[in-house]
Structures are given as structure tokens and as C-alpha cells.
Specification:
Blueprint lengths: L20 H22 L8 H10 L18 H15 L8 H6 L5 H10 L6 H5 L2 H13 L4 H14 L8 H13 L3 H13 L6 H13 L3 H13 L6 H13 L3 H13 L6 H13 L3 H13 L6 H13 L3 H13 L6 H13 L3 H13 L6 H13 L3 H13 L6 H13 L3 H14 L5 H13 L3 H13 L6 H13 L3 H13 L6 H13 L3 H13 L6 H13 L3 H13 L6 H13 L3 H13 L6 H13 L3 H13 L6 H13 L3 H13 L6 H24 L12 H17 L6 H13 L3 H13 L6 H13 L3 H13 L6 H13 L3 H12 L5 H14 L4 H13 L6 H13 L8 H12 L1
Helix pairs in contact: 1-5, 2-5, 2-7, 3-5, 7-9, 9-10, 9-11, 10-11, 11-12, 11-13, 12-13, 13-14, 13-15, 14-15, 15-16, 15-17, 16-17, 17-18, 17-19, 18-19, 19-20, 19-21, 21-22, 21-23, 22-23, 23-24, 23-25, 24-25, 25-26, 25-27, 26-27, 27-28, 27-29, 28-29, 29-30, 29-31, 30-31, 31-32, 31-33, 33-34, ...
């Protein structure tokens, strides 16, 4: 094999003097991109088999990667001009004495990469030109260009396959082209291909250069293959080369990647001893290695050392310890380091700011992080996806979802490509804020436009549905996940088992537990404990115990939470002897009871009327230095009040305050109920005042306890009046107006004790009354609040609208619906579902259809519309005809659900006894199945 080195021809055409440097750069980039794209596409066709013929021709024409703009064939020349020059060159090349053509020499400087690509594709009659004319050096140049302009692993593989095909006995790779290919293989981390190329070079008689060895050592070290790299190093010595700074730095990188810092420093010492001076990359590699294993102090020492030796750290060097300091919450030192780098004239880059923004956000300094974000924008730095992800994540965690959403939309509007992590963060923020519908809109966008949802996306959405109690949609999302080829993981099934257990759907929880096993996933501590807890709370303690035993048999380590779940079930069932045995077993395993263990026992005893024994455990836990918490005190207060010992319970409340344990609404409500049962309403209201003063908001249960006490007062007063034969005052609890009078009395008594009703008071009462079906009292309460200059908030409107729908008072419901829209409040699919169903039941199907069409004008997830409105709304209530009409409306407006959603519809139709074979739905399902 002949070895040669390509040198650029002196005849390379010069760039037109009127073209600016920027224009030259842009034109070159576009030309290279087009040439690479066309070249790769044509590798798939038979035409490129002839590239070997044209390579020498192109070399003769002095083709260059640099653009040339001629007066006749400019970058902006028309397609006709382009075809004209291509056709003319092809015609000349077809002639026997083409090399003597003066016209070809004139055209040669005008040719650009896209001209040559077209000539290569269409010229057919030069099959033997390469071997016959032996134009090797220019041909090698074309080969090198082909290799250099590959943009990914797929392209480089195609090019290599093609070049292997045309490389024969007389046209093998040169050292230059071999090194170029090796560098590209290293760029795409194609280790095996690099190994094979090196072997081919040796077998072909090509003597490797230092560049060859360095490139191969570097790619091996990047992958942590240091032992193999050391073997290559030994071969380097055989060829009488000396390792340079690049060689040593690559070896240091390899050892750092393998977390063998001592060996990395050994190489560092060796290179210094051999007289090879480390550079900034060498130090940066060591600093990075130290930071990765948590040796931040040593990394900072290395930074100081390199400065002392006169080696200027780069922005990358500084960013490494800055990131490490932020990760361990030493953000103040990180900021000082940034200030130090600026003093040395090294300005932070996007990665530096990203590290600081993320670090500051994590420690709660979100405002400072946002300030840094604006600062980097002012400095002309464009945040990358990592920056945005860090900021969006911390904003969502901090409850500032609206700000996070603004940044997300800003990204989209300014061409910053959001990746799956960005979407996952914003979806998580939506779910944390209770807005699963907005999260599902983003999910649909991912499905249609990318990036494709990951297992994290699905898990986040499933958790979002389960948190809100929408178990049906959580299950459907799992099916959609499988349908889209995304395999559920342990986290997915843990969420499902926990969520269904929490909402009392134990059959489904057990089903997903079994499915998890069938999928080859091992149930872990989380899934077992969730299932045990669910059965315990549902009173199915024996099943919980069998799961507990199975958990031990399968080798799944039990923890305190597992024991607590079983103890909770046994305590509630008054099976304290068994609970005590479980506690003993727990101690044998070396697990100490925690506050939850003690509180579980205390709560069980209090609920079974054994408060005296509960106090023994309470005192025992204090002796064991286990401090009682809110739930411990709440259980004891509840138990005492149930036994009529409200005054003693209040003493416990005082003890809580002294010990700094803040009572919640459950604690106060139990105590208020205790005094209400005793008829001590004045004291009950004083406790309400105390509750509000402590910043604890009463819930509907609190107010209902007081209303019950006031009603009892009313009945006693009526009985007293009746005994005295006076009919002056009547307070029958069966009359609705009187019931509202009791509510009014509640508000009046609150005012008397200096606890004026607020908007929140009205909201809680109205929502509660609506939920209990007491719509008339709720409406009267709305009038009362408006008279007090309070404007109803969103939750009040929602409650009223839902209540009117249940009563089929559709006109009033529509009036409230219009009010909600006019005020700009967000409308949920559940609201549309309730109203559409009410209109249907009231015989106003056309209005229901119009409302549905209006709903489609807003942003929704298509599948969620079907799940929530059609399946869980109309089909569940047997309204098949309207359901199918609304489905047709969706389809006619290009709102096409997923195939799985059609199957869900089909299953629901079968459930209600409707055969789908005669329905258009059957045809739709058949088409969708055939398309897959």
C-alpha cells in the first residue's frame, strides 16, 4: 500500500473579495451541511457505487470545501443555472480526452460542494477512471471530507462501509485519512470500530503516528478502558514516540473515570518527572475527578496550585468546583469562587450560572437564583436546557408554578428546545398544584410533537391522578403507557398499589401487586407496606398479617413502617395482645418503636374506650425519650372527649402549647365537640376563637359540630317553651328556614366572640352544605355573604353549580357556569361533565351538545375528554346516544382519541350490555387495529 500525505492544492479558488467573513462562514456551513446531507442520502442508492470513479475527477477539478462565489454561478443562482453547469461538466467528463478540455478548467473554480454531489450522482460512465488515471491525492481529500462531515454514528457507519467497498489494492487509506477517521470514531465514542481501524492500519503497513496513539488512548480512557490504553501506550514506545501532555492527560482521565484517583495522581507525577508540563486540561481533569468523589477541598487546592504555577484556569476549570460546592450546599464559597474567577478576567459561562442557580434554589435562595438568571441574560448569555430545567424544578418545588410556566413558555417562544426532563418538571409542577388537566395537555403535546414521554412522565401523571382520587384515569394511563411502548417500572406499580390502597380499592391494589410480579418486578418494601396498610385500615387485618408473613418469606426487609401498619390494624380491631406480640417481634429485629408506633397503639386504645391504658403507653414513650407529636395528643384528646372528660382534654391542649406542638383542626374539632356534647356552647365558641387566633382554619366538620350544638340548644329551648305552654318561639330542625336560622345564629355567635366570619368561613360552609345536599341553605348563605360585601370565589361557584346539576336545576347551573366564565375562573372537565349530564337528563340534549362543542374550543387532552366526560359521565349513567353523538362531534373536529381510548369505550359499552358490532365504533376500532 502506498502511503501519502495530502497537501492542499495551490489552485484552490479564492473567496470573492466582496464576501464578508461572516458570509463566508455561513455559506461554508450551509455548503458543508448540504453536501453531507446529499452525500449520505445517496449512499443508499446505486449511484454512489461510482464515487470511486468521480473522486479522481473531482480532485482534478480542484474541488475545495471552501465556497467560491462567481459572477455567473453565485450562491443565489437559479435552479436552471445549477442544472446547466452540472449537465455541462457531466458532458465533458463523458469525453475520452476530458482532461484536455479547456472548458472544464474554466468551470472548475465555479464548482461548489452541491454541484459536485449532483455530478457524482448522475455521472455514469467513468468506472475505470480512478485506477487508470491514478489521481490518488485529490481522491483522498474527497475521502477525508466525507469522513469529516459525518454528523452522527449512523452517517459514519455508512461512509465507512462505502469507503471499504471502494478501497482496493491501489487505493487504500493513507495515514492522514486513517487518523481523520479515527478522530471521527472517537468523536462518536465508537470504541470497537476504532480498535478495528487500528488493526487494519497495522495490517496494511501504515505506521501509526503519535496522533494515532493519542486518539486511540483517549477514546479508550473516556470509556474507562485504562488497562487497554496502557497496552497501546507500550506500543507507542515501540515506535520510538514519547508520550506528550495529551497522552498523559488521557490516562489521567481514564483513571478518574474509574474513580482511581491515586493512580491518576501517579500518572500526573510521572509526567512531571519525565519533563512533560501539565496544562489546564490536565489540572481540570484531576479537579473534576476529585469533585466527583467528594474531595472538594483537594480540588480547590489543585486549583490554587495551577494558578501558582502560572497555568490559567479556564471557565471550565472553575465551573467544576463551583458545581461541587453548590451540590454540598456550600453556595457562599461557590459565589466567592465566581468573584475570584472574574478578578482573573475569566467570565462565568452558561454552565457556571446553571450550577449556581441550581445550588441556590435547592437551599431556598430562589430569589437570588432568579436574579442570577436575569443577570446572565443581561450579559448576553443564552441559558441552555439544563439551566431552565434547574430553575423550573426549584420553582415548582417552591410552589411558584405560574413563574415556572412563564419560563417554560418563554423557552418555547425563543426556540430553546425543551427536553423530556423540562416537560417532566413542568408536568410535576402542574400535578403538585392540583392541575392534572394542564399536565395532560402537555403530555398530549409530547406525544404529538416530542420529546416522547418517558417512564418518569407517566409515573408523575399516574401519581397526579391518584392524589386527586381519580383512580380510573390512573389505570387508563397505565394502559396507555403500555400501548405506547413504555414499560412500567417498580415506581409505577408502587404508585398504583399505594394509590388504590389509599382510596379503598384493595382488589385493584392487589391486582397491580400481582401484575408487578408477573412483569418480573420484585415487590419491595413500599408496595408491601402500602398493601398491608390499606388492608389494615379497611379492617381486613388477617389479610394484612398474611402479607406481612409473605413479606418475611420473600426476604423483603421489614422496617418500622411495615410493623406500624400491622399494629395499626390490630389496634383498631381491639386485638392488643397480638399487637403487643408484633411489638416484641419488632424489638427482636433490633427495630425501636418510633412515635408512630406508640401513637398507633394509643389511637387504637382511645377509639376502643381504653384511654386509661393509652396514657400508660403515653408516659412510657416519654420515659423512653420518644417525644409525642400532634397525632399522639390528638388521639388522647379525642379519647378523653369521647369519655366526657373535655376539661382534662383541654389541659392536654395547654400542654401541647407549652411543648411547642401546634394543634390542628382535628385536635380543636375533637375538643369543641367534647364541650358541645356537654352543652357548654359558650366554651366551645371560645375554643373556636382560640383556634382562629392560632392561625388554624376551621373546616366543615368544625362548623357542623357547632351547628349540631346550636340545634341541640334550639330543641332544648323549644321543649322548655312547650313545657311552659308558650308557643312564642319555635325552632323545629325539620324546617329549612329554621335550619338557615341556625347557620345565621352560628355566624352571629362568631361575631359576638370577636371572630368575624370571613370569605373563607363562607366558602367552607357553602361547599359543605352543597356536599350534604342542603342547597337552599347554601343559596341563602350566598345572599348573606353578598350583603356583607363578600364576592363568591371559584370554589363556591363550583360547589353551587355541582349541587344545582344534581338537583337538575339546569338554568341556575348554566347561570353560574356563565358567571364562572365571565370572571375568568378555570373550568375543569368535571364541571362540564356534571352540566352536560344534567342537560341530558333534563331533556335538553341539543344544549348539551352545544356546550360540548364550546368546550372543545378550549385546550384539553383529547383522551382525557373521552375518559372524564363520555365514559365516566354519560356512559356510566347509561346515556349512550348522546355519548356517541359527542364522540362524532370530536372526530368531525379532528379530536381523534387514542386507539386504547376507543377500546375503553368499547369495554364500557359491553359492560352496560350494548353490543358494539353494530356501532360505528366497531369499524373505527377495526381500522385502528389494521393500521397498527
Amino acid at each position: 500500500m502506498t502511503t501519502f500525505v495530502y497537501s492542499p492544492s495551490p489552485l484552490v479558488p479564492r473567496t470573492h473579495p466582496l464576501i464578508s467573513k461572516t458570509q463566508r462562514k455561513n455559506t461554508l456551513a450551509k455548503t458543508h451541511e448540504r453536501f453531507s446531507h446529499e452525500m449520505v442520502n445517496r449512499l443508499k442508492t446505486q449511484c454512489l457505487v461510482h464515487l470511486q470513479n468521480h473522486s479522481s475527477v473531482l480532485g482534478f477539478l480542484n474541488f475545495s470545501s471552501k465556497p467560491h462565489i462567481s459572477p455567473h454561478f453565485s450562491v443565489h443562482s437559479s435552479r436552471d443555472s445549477f442544472q446547466a453547469i452540472v449537465s455541462r461538466v457531466c458532458a465533458i467528463l463523458s469525453q475520452v480526452r476530458w482532461k484536455e478540455s479547456s472548458e472544464l478548467k474554466q468551470l472548475s473554480p465555479q464548482l461548489k460542494a452541491h454541484h459536485v454531489a449532483e455530478i457524482v450522482a448522475v455521472h455514469k460512465d467513468t468506472q475505470s477512471v480512478l485506477v487508470r488515471d491514478r489521481e490518488f491525492a485529490p481522491a483522498d481529500h474527497i475521502r477525508i471530507l466525507m469522513i469529516k462531515y459525518c454528523r452522527n454514528e449512523e452517517e459514519i457507519r455508512r461512509v465507512v462501509a462505502f469507503l471499504d467497498e471502494i478501497s482496493g489494492k491501489d487505493f487504500g487509506f493513507s495515514l492522514y485519512s486513517s487518523n481523520t477517521l479515527l478522530i471521527q470514531l472517537a468523536k462518536f465514542e465508537m470504541v470497537e470500530a476504532a480498535r478495528n481501524l487500528y488493526k487494519q492500519m497495522l495490517n496494511s503497513g501504515i505506521n501509526p503516528s503519535l496522533l494515532t496513539f493519542n486518539t486511540l488512548i483517549n477514546i479508550l480512557c473516556k470509556k474507562g478502558e485504562v488497562r487497554e490504553a496502557e497496552l497501546i501506550l507500550s506500543q507507542l514506545f515501540k515506535y520510538e514516540f514519547s508520550p506528550d501532555v495529551f497522552t498523559y492527560t488521557s490516562l489521567i482521565l481514564g483513571y478518574c473515570r474509574n474513580h482511581k484517583l491515586d493512580l491518576a495522581f501517579g500518572v500526573f507525577d510521572r509526567m512531571v518527572k519525565e519533563g512533560c508540563d501539565p496544562n489546564s486540561v490536565t489540572y481540570s481533569t484531576l479537579i473534576n475527578g476529585l469533585c466527583n468523589v467528594g474531595r472538594v477541598e483537594e480540588a480547590l487546592d489543585m486549583l490554587e496550585e495551577m494558578i501558582e504555577k502560572g497555568i490559567e484556569p479556564t471557565v471550565y476549570t472553575y465551573t467544576l468546583p463551583i458545581t461541587a460546592l453548590c451540590a454540598i450546599e456550600r453556595e457562599e464559597e461557590a459565589i466567592e469562587l465566581v468573584a475570584g474567577m472574574k478578578k482573573r478576567g475569566c467570565h462565568p459561562n452558561v454552565q457556571t450560572y446553571t450550577a449556581l442557580i441550581s445550588g441556590l434554589s435547592r437551599v431556598g435562595k430562589l430569589e437570588v437564583a432568579i436574579g442570577l438568571y436575569h443577570k446572565m441574560l443581561k450579559e448576553g448569555l443564552v441559558p441552555n436546557t439544563v439551566t431552565y430545567n434547574a430553575l423550573i424544578n426549584e420553582l415548582c418545588v417552591g410552589g411558584r408554578f405560574s413563574t415556572a410556566l412563564k419560563i417554560f413558555h418563554w423557552m418555547e417562544g425563543h426556540g430553546s428546545l425543551a427536553n423530556s426532563q423540562t416537560y417532566n418538571e413542568i408536568i410535576k409542577g402542574s400535578c403538585l398544584g392540583g392541575d392534572i388537566e394542564k399536565a395532560m395537555i402537555l403530555f398530549e403535546k409530547m406525544l404529538k410533537m416530542g420529546p416522547f414521554p418517558t417512564v418518569v412522565t407517566y409515573n408523575t401523571l399516574i401519581n397526579g391522578y391518584l392524589t386527586k382520587g381519580n383512580v380510573n384515569n390512573a389505570a387508563r394511563l397505565l394502559d396507555l403507557m403500555k400501548e405506547n411502548g413504555c414499560q412500567p417500572d417498580e415506581w409505577t406499580y408502587n404508585e398504583l398499589v399505594s394509590g388504590f390502597s389509599k382510596w379503598g380499592k384493595l382488589d385493584y391494589a392487589s391486582f397491580y401487586f400481582q401484575e408487578m410480579v408477573k412483569c418480573g418486578l420484585s415487590p419491595n418494601l413500599v408496595s408491601y407496606t402500602a398493601l398491608i396498610d390499606g388492608h389494615s385500615k379497611d379492617g381486613k387485618v388477617d389479610i394484612a398479617l398474611s402479607l406481612f408473613e409473605k413479606m418475611e418469606e420473600t426476604g423483603c426487609s421489614l422496617n418500622v413502617e411495615s410493623y406500624n401498619a400491622v399494629i395499626n390494624g390490630l389496634s383498631k380491631e381491639n386485638r392488643f395482645s397480638e399487637a403487643e406480640k408484633i411489638c416484641d417481634k419488632m424489638a427482636e429485629q433490633g427495630l425501636l418503636p418510633n412515635v408512630i408506633t406508640y401513637t398507633t397503639l394509643i389511637d387504637g386504645l382511645c377509639r376502643n374506650g381504653r384511654t386509661q391504658f393509652a396514657f400508660k403507653i403515653f408516659h412510657d414513650m416519654e420515659k423512653r425519650k420518644c417525644l409525642p407529636n400532634l397525632y399522639t395528643y390528638s388521639s388522647l384528646i379525642y379519647g378523653l372527649c369521647q369519655e366526657g372528660k373535655a376539661s382534662e382534654a383541654e389541659m392536654l391542649l395547654n400542654e401541647m402549647e407549652r411543648k411547642g406542638v401546634d394543634p390542628d383542626e382535628v385536635t380543636f374539632t375533637s375538643l369543641i365537640d367534647g364541650f358541645t356534647v356537654q352543652g357548654r356552647m359558650d366554651h366551645a365558641f371560645l375554643l373556636l376563637r382560640r383556634m382562629v387566633d392560632m392561625g388554624c382554619k376551621p373546616n366543615y366538620r368544625t362548623y357542623s359540630v357547632l351547628l349540631k350544638g346550636l340545634q341541640k340548644e334550639c330543641i332544648l329551648l323549644e321543649e322548655k317553651v312547650a313545657v311552659q305552654h308558650e308557643a312564642v318561639y319555635s325552632c323545629s330542625p325539620h324546617e329549612k328556614d329554621v335550619n338557615f336560622e341556625i347557620v345565621s345564629n352560628l355566624l352571629a355567635r362568631m361575631s359576638e366572640i370577636g371572630c368575624e366570619p370571613t370569605l373563607d368561613t363562607y366558602s367552607v360552609l357553602i361547599s359543605g352544605l352543597c356536599g350534604k345536599g342542603r342547597l337552599n341553605e347554601a343559596k341563602q348563605l350566598v345572599k348573606d355573604m353578598e350583603e356583607r360585601s363578600f364576592s363568591p370565589e371559584r370554589e363556591i361557584y363550583y360547589s353551587l353549580l355541582t349541587a344545582h346539576c344534581k338537583c337538575l336545576e339546569v338554568d341556575l347551573a348554566l347561570k353560574i357556569f356563565n358567571l364562572i366564565e365571565a370572571k375568568g375562573f378555570q373550568l375543569h372537565l368535571s364541571i362540564y361533565r356534571a352540566l352536560i349530564y344534567a342537560l341530558c337528563k333534563a331533556g335538553r340534549a341539543e344544549e348539551a351538545q352545544d356546550l360540548f362543542a364550546n368546550m372543545l374550543d378550549k385546550q384539553w387532552n383529547t383522551d382525557e375528554i373521552v375518559w372524564t366526560v363520555l365514559v365516566d359521565g354519560l356512559l356510566k349513567e347509561g346515556e349512550l346516544d348522546l355519548c356517541m353523538k359527542l364522540l362524532h362531534v370530536m372526530e368531525s373536529r379532528n379530536f381523534s382519541p387514542n386507539r386504547l381510548t376507543y377500546e375503553i369505550l368499547g369495554r364500557e359499552l359491553s359492560r352496560i350490555g350494548k353490543c358494539i358490532e353494530t356501532e360505528p365504533l366497531a369499524d373505527k376500532l377495526k381500522v385502528l387495529k389494521d393500521s397498527n
